[in-house]
Amino acid sequence: MRIVLAGLATSHPYTDARTLTRHAELVVWEPDPERLRRFTDEHPAAKVAGGLDEALATKPDGVVLTVPNPQVPGALAKVLETGAPCFVNKPAAASREQLDALDRLPVHDRVMSGSVLRFAPAFAAAPPVDPDEVLAVRATVRHDVGMWATGYNAWQDTPGEGGGTMVTMGVHGVELLVALLGPDVRLAGAAGARRHYATLRSEDTGVMALRWGSGVTGTVEILGVSESEAYTVTLHRRDRTDTIVIESGDDPVANLGYEGTIEAFLAMVGGAPSPIPWEQTRAILEVLVSAREQA
User: Fold this and answer.
1) What is the distance of C-alpha 57 from the center of its chain?
2) What parts of the sequence cross the membrane (predicted)?
3) How far apart are CA 91 and CA 164, in angstroms?
4) Could you report the average pLDDT of every consecutive run of 10 residues in the chain (295 residues)?
5) Residue 223 lies in a domain
6) Cβ neighbours of residue 84 under 8 Å, at least 6 residues apart?
7) Torsion 278-283-286-287 (CA) sign
């Protein structure tokens, strides 16, 4: 089996590769020499391609795509031409222009994108939710963004490029709630602020208000100033409140869903459709882009 890692723009493909290398021959393309060196130091057996076209010419069985958001539509278009299943590391779009470009692509049922938290064991083991029993839901995202305050990966912190904290961290909360309640959701409002990291281009805290067609209301809280990483989903019912907590623990690759995500991707390589319907991914991106526009 041959898997192409097309781009190393964030930390995720480095983590993905640790699982993939147990199953496949790796081909990697990344234009930044320092990022590429970091990868090949850990995976010296990986074949290095000089460009995306060269990487795709190796006829991969699957592609993990991780490029800066403005480049996603063009790169994904090339991957789609190969027919290979593709996992697009989150988020697939961070602006209206990017989302419109994605909408013009012939996305098939073996394209997957989203937050790895959907595959976290603590979340995957939760029982199905009946929206008729739910009054309201809340997702709280605790993930420090201080690295951006130093200028690291400035494109992620730029609202018109990577979407900033509202999009890049907010996707985790929106993803979990849509996974529970479905894609019939719209943004009711959003706000963000810089409470600690004054040099950010975006915000370090944010909030979104959501409403599903069923009438359920939801809140996504984003705390980008945090000493620990954790994600909590709260479901309020008339008679009780249920909570799902996702933490890294002793094995963050497994506990945060990275391993489960790659297992789902490998199932796609084996012929299965994406376990995340594109309808859900599109609804999540619409909420995130709308929140970016409002905030």
Assistant:
1) 26
2) none
3) 11
4) 98 96 97 97 97 98 98 98 98 98 97 98 95 96 97 96 98 98 98 98 98 97 97 97 97 97 98 97 98 96
5) yes
6) 4, 56, 60, 61, 62, 63
7) negative
In total, the chain counts a number of residues equal to 295
Residues 78 and 187 in one domain: no
Instruction: Name the domain count of the chain.
Output: 2
Domain identity same for 11 and 48: yes
d(CA 291, CA 63): 29
Determine the Cα–Cα distance for residues 223 and 226; give it in Å rounded to an integer: 7
Cα gap 38→32, rounded to integer Å = 10
